[in-house]
Specification:
With about 280 residues, the chain is α/β, with parallel strands linked by helices. The chain folds into 2 domains: about 5-150 and about 215-250 and about 270-275, Rossmann fold; about 170-205, no CATH class. About 40% of the residues lie in helices and about 20% in strands. The protein has 12 helices and 7 strands. It has a 7-stranded mixed sheet with strand order 3-2-1-4-5-7-6, with helices on both faces. Helix 2 packs across helix 3 and helix 5 packs across helix 9 (about 220-230). It starts with 5 loop residues before the first helix and ends with a strand.
């Protein structure tokens, strides 16, 4: 999938939690941005590809249209019934799925030319082990695409957003913020900006369940640099996307904040890195 269609991506994002299949469709559409980022860094999208933490499987399928082989791996096997269905619809013959742990990959060393880690590292129990495995299964000179967001940013917090934009996690800490949003999802969902099909808190509350906190890593930009370097990767290109409020600040003030560890984590809504196995 190479065509970036912002309207289609936004529409799919608004309904992505309706089902695992809808989530896979959103991933498939969004993957065009991943391919574009790789090519901006001069990386070839081809050969043997692993999507380590593939979720519904949509990104792996998109890359399967470009590669000789694409494998999507997920610990929870979310691709069952979603990625497999979409694979049949898109007729992607060079893609498959494996249920497994990204911290103990069931593949031989130097098996892949490209490994993807799209919004995964914040959810793993051991970020260092996960990155070491990504490094191990890459051939020498192989490429890792990694995207995430600092946990202090609105995107990286993985929390709903209030209709009145108050950063609860910054004011009171993540634990209180998480409990607050679980309460609001049950008792006052109208206070939240994203509604049921784009909000797991509300979707689960409607089923009589509560959202569990699956954010296991407190990602910061500094930690991310340390993790990837220790695992044996060299940065080819890093792109930091500043959230809308901070983009409106005067240039000199914005540059100052971007150099300060705490504020750069708050204002960075998304970071994507293209790294090479050193």
């Amino acid at each position: 999938m190479r065509t970036i269609d912002p309207g289609a991506i936004d529409a799919a994002a608004a309904t992505r939690f309706r089902s695992e299949y809808d989530y896979a469709v959103w991933e498939y559409l969004r993957s065009a941005k991943v391919i574009e980022a790789l090519e901006r860094a001069g990386a070839r999208v081809g050969g043997r590809v692993l999507d380590s933490g593939c979720g519904g499987g949509g990104t792996a399928l998109s890359l399967g249209e470009e590669a000789s082989l694409a494998v999507g791996l997920d610990l929870d096997g979310r691709f069952f019934g979603s990625g497999t269905r979409l694979r049949a619809e898109k007729q992607v013959a060079r893609a498959g799925f494996v249920q497994g742990d990204g911290q103990r990959l069931p593949f031989a060393s130097a098996s892949f030319d490209l490994v993807l880690s799209h919004s995964v590292i914040e959810h793993v129990m051991d970020a260092s082990a996960y990155l070491r495995e990504c490094h191990r299964v890459l051939r020498p000179g192989g490429v890792l695409y990694l995207s995430t967001a600092p946990f202090l940013s609105l995107s990286g917090a993985h929390l709903p957003r209030l209709r009145v934009p108050v950063p609860i996690h910054l004011l009171f800490g993540r634990r209180i913020a998480f409990r607050t949003f679980r309460f609001l999802a049950r008792h006052a969902p109208w206070t939240l900006k994203e509604q049921k099909e784009a909000n797991t808190f509300i979707a689960l509350a409607a089923e009589g369940k509560e959202k569990e906190d699956d954010l296991h890593q407190r990602v910061t930009l500094r930690r991310l640099t340390d993790w990837t370097s220790a695992a044996g990767f060299r940065v080819v290109r890093e792109e930091r996307h500043v959230t809308g409020f901070f983009r409106a600040l005067p240039g000199a003030l914005r540059r100052l904040l971007e150099r300060t560890p705490f504020t750069q984590d708050v204002m960075t809504g998304h970071v994507q890195c293209v790294l090479v196995k050193a």
